[in-house]
Structures are given as structure tokens and as C-alpha cells.
């Protein structure tokens, strides 16, 4: 019984060590992408293109900036 309890503890600890950093990374990237979209949306007002082209440019710039980070 003790071996099984140790195995469960080790498995849970190992899962937390793997899952928590990934979750923190995804949440952080989501927040950064939101900020980048806000910044580029403000820039869209000065773009002389149609709404579709401006939206495409905004998301492209945000994704390039996110990849750069």
C-alpha cells in the first residue's frame, strides 16, 4: 500500500511540474497577445486601408511581435 501511495504522490508531483509551467506560459502569451492587439488596433486608425486589410495587418504585426518576444 505504501508503494502505491508513493507512486501516486510522485505521479501527481511530476504532473504538476510539467503542467504548471505550460499553463503559466500559455496564460502569459495570451496576455501579451492581448496587449499587442490593443496596441496595433490603436495604430489601425491611421492605416489608409480597408477594414479587412487593416485587421489582417494588425494580427500579422501582433503575431510577428509575439514571435519576436
Summarize the structure.
It is built from 2 helices and no strands. It has about 70 residues and is mainly alpha-helical.
Secondary structure: elements and pairs:
Layout: H1 2-44, H2 51-68
Question: Could you describe the 3D structure shown?
Answer:
With 69 residues, the chain is mainly α. The protein has a domain at 21-68. It has two helices and no strands. The protein has helices at 2-44, 51-68. Helix 1 (2-44) crosses helix 2 (51-68). It is rod-shaped, with a radius of gyration of 21 Å. The N and C termini lie far apart (48 Å). The mean pLDDT is 83.
What form results from the Cα inertia axes?
rod-shaped
Which structural class matches the secondary elements?
Answer: mainly alpha
Mean pLDDT: 83
Largest sheet: none
Strand content: under 5%
Which regions contain 5 or more consecutive residues with pLDDT less than 50? none
Q: Using the CA coordinates, give the radius of gyration.
A: 21 Å
Distance between the termini: 48 Å
Q: Roughly what percent helix?
A: over 70%
Oligomer: single chain
Count of helical stretches:
2
In total, the number of strands is 0
- Please provide the ordered H/E string of secondary-structure elements: HH
Amino acid at each position: 500500500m505504501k508503494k502505491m501511495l508513493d507512486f501516486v504522490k510522485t505521479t501527481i508531483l511530476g504532473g504538476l511540474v510539467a503542467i504548471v509551467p505550460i499553463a503559466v506560459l500559455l496564460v502569459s502569451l495570451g496576455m501579451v497577445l492581448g496587449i499587442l492587439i490593443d496596441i496595433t488596433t490603436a495604430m489601425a486608425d491611421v492605416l489608409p486601408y480597408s477594414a479587412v486589410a487593416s485587421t489582417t495587418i494588425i494580427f500579422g504585426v501582433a503575431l510577428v511581435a509575439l514571435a519576436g518576444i
